[in-house]
Amino acid sequence: MEEEISLREVIEIVWKGRNIIAIITIITTLFSAFLSFFIIKPTYEASTKIAVTSIIPSTGFFGSNTTIIMSNNGNNSNKINVYNDEIDKDLSSLLSSLLKYPDMTIDAFKEEVTNPVVLQNTINQLELNNKKYTIDYLKSHIDVTLIDKTNLIDITVKENDPRLAVKIADTVAEKFREYITTINNKQTDKLMVTLDQLIKLQNEKIDKATNELNEAINTNNEILINEKQTRLDLLKKSRDIMIEKYNMLELVKASKLGEQSVLITSKALIPEKPVSPKKLLNIVIAFILGIMVSIFIVFFIEYWKNSNTRIYSGNKNTSGIG
């Protein structure tokens, strides 16, 4: 019976405060609608997709093991001297360690999309307001995600202006491509400078070996002449390979490696509908919150009235006893 009475009391309290509940609910709902339609600016999303491939030119020093075998004449005619590229082992190791491009994974590409250089170049290209469109602001409005099990990267830009969102998304993709090209060109220039210095050192070795060969020729020592000639041939071969690699690096630079490793597969389209605010959802949430808050207020008012009544009755009974 107490449960039935309690439920009835609840219903009576709600019914008694129906006007308060209705007013508060209507106010919160209208306020939410006003904010959603007139105050909160709509936000649009524009997405550009790029495909990335880590293209690393082969810049190894020796393409194969070069071996030169020469028979000696004279007293040691049965002895065979084998000269191979291990003579210049130190040089080969040096080239192998220096003539390398960084191996960028797709995750590394993803992180570089919002590189400060890329974002600043985007701001400059579009002539955006520097006071509003800072690097941090632009970065917070760009979402870069990897498309699962592919080499595709999705660049999504959120903006109040749908056309500007498209421009920013496409420009970021283009500036990122230019950035990767610039980085690769700088690395190529560095490798070319290093290789040029090594070629000069090799030429000095060749000059020295040539002088030694001329001195050996003056001695008429055939064994010594053959050794010096073989040494000179190896040095020249090494130098020629270096020059070949240098020419290859020039071709790599001319080919703009970054443009090959980053391809814009899908440019952004002007979005027709905003992604936020979700007007209907906001209104429904405000309606539900309005009902909950108003019911709480009604029960609080009823509780406050009953508390005052009990206090007044208690004081009156105490006075009567006295």
UniProtKB/TrEMBL annotation:
- The answer to whether the entry has keyword Ion transport is no
Assigned keywords, A-Z? Cell membrane, Coiled coil, Kinase, Membrane, Transferase, Transmembrane, Transmembrane helix
Q: Where in the cell is it found?
A: Cell membrane
What kind of membrane protein is this, topologically? Multi-pass membrane protein
A GO term for molecular function:
protein tyrosine kinase activity
Span-the-membrane segments of this chain are 20-40, 280-301
Coiled-coil features, chain-numbered ranges: 192-226
What's the protein called, per UniProt? G-rich domain on putative tyrosine kinase
List the source organism.
Caldanaerobius fijiensis DSM 17918
What does UniProt list as this organism's lineage? Answer: Bacteria, Bacillati, Bacillota, Clostridia, Thermoanaerobacterales
